[in-house]
Amino acid sequence: MNSETLSKFGEKKLIKQLARILKRRHDVVVGCGDDCAVVSLGPTATDELLLTSDAVIENIHFDASVPLELAGRKIIGRVISDIAAMSGQPSWCLIDLVAPPERKVDEIMQIYSGMTKFAEEYNMAIVGGDTARGGVLELHAFCVGTIPRGRAVLRSGAGKGDALFVTGTIGGSRSGKHLNFLPRLREGIFLRDWASSMIDISDGLASDLRHLIEASAVGVEIFMDKIPVSDVLNNLLPSEKIKHAFTDGEDFELLFTVPEKKKNAFLNRWNRMFDLSLSEIGIITETPGKITTKDQNDLFCMPDEGFDHFLTT
Q1: Nearest CA to 166 among 209, 196, 207?
Q2: How many domains would you assign to the chain?
Q3: Which residue among 9, 86, 135, 191 is least packed, with the fewest CB closer than 10 Å?
Q4: Distance between CA atoms of residues 88 and 75, nearest Å
């Protein structure tokens, strides 16, 4: 028995504990521990299913001043970003709505308007869900995507010498990006032929980078001067800018690795296909779990920070 509270135990340790009691079946290709589960449709099927879920809760993921269409848009963007991180295509989504009885019908319609418009942009259908009474607005999404059999890009494929890349810019998500970000779906599908591992940045670069190297049993050296810090942080001191870039979270950019032998061809193809900025921010090393940064030839440990739903500070 464990009498420790979640505020002390933390989200990451809880997930590891829960994973130990989840039973694996023969048709589960990838279970707990990646951006999506991967499920087989049988030995003759050409595709596999990607399964993911997420939640957006009032006063945690958005506040009362936020236009409700954006709250709806956000929950859809979050699950599509998970599918993108596995290099798949979103297909169907169920939405569970929790709401106080005193909320107006028009407000709920605004939420669903935001959800359906954004889902349609990515060719995903919202096909149903459920409703329940609660103290605040909550949106819970369960998304199903598809991926050609054996082609999902996992967190666990990085190898020594692989180049580490991140799309777009990171940090400062609370300035508004956490509500109006664009899931990198097209880029994620393209990376199916190039990336050895991939994750989307939701908890923050520091936290999600750790998820990736732990899954791959490798380490990484970070190029601090290559971190693409968002322009909204320009008024901060350099040290503060870097801290926000590593720990703010909800960037929903793709963090991935490419084998060194593929790197030049990959960059040539990327630059021909996409206007989205791309930054090479590190190299994979062989010491499992070790993250270092090189700054003026000095190596030092990166602080262990990032978003956790349960930990109190």
Answers
A1: 209
A2: 2
A3: 135
A4: 18
Q: Give the separation between CA 269 and CA 274, rounded to whole angstroms.
A: 9
CATH code (residue 184): 3.90.650.10
Q: Write out the residue range of the structural domain in which residue 34 sits.
A: 23-148
105 lies in the same domain as 183: no
Write out pLDDT tens, residues 93-142.
999 999 999 999 999 999 999 999 999 999 999 999 999 999 999 999 99
Q: Cβ atoms within 10 A of the Cβ of 310, count?
A: 14
Q: At what angle do helices 205-216 and 238-247 cross, to 10 degrees?
A: 50
Alpha-carbon distance 258 to 252, whole Å?
Answer: 19
The 10 Å CB-count burial string (b at 16+, else e) for 270-297 is beeeeeeebbebbbbbeeeeebbbeeee
Nearest CA to 151 among 47, 253, 32, 34? 47
Let me know if residue 112 belongs to a domain: yes
Query: What does the DSSP assignment read for 253-302?
Result: -EEEEE-GGGHHHHHHHHHHH--S-EEEEEEEESSTT-EEEEETTEEEEP
| Same domain assignment for residues 108 and 208 | no
Contacts with 24 (C-beta within 8 Å, 6 or more apart), sequence order: 31
Q: Domain containing 49 — which CATH number?
A: 3.30.1330.10
- DSSP notation for 37-50: EEEE--TT-SEEEE
Residue 71 lies in a domain: yes
Instruction: Name residue, tokens 């791309």.
Output: 278
- Residue 128 and residue 94 in contact, taking contact as beta carbons nearer than 8 Å: yes
Please tell me whether residues 70 and 144 are part of one structural domain: yes
pTM score: 0.92
Residue among 174, 236, 169 at smallest CA distance from 205: 169
Q: Which residues of the chain have pLDDT under 50?
A: 296-301, 310, 313
Q: Residue 160, exposed/middle/buried by CB under 10 A (0-12, 13-18, 19+)?
A: middle
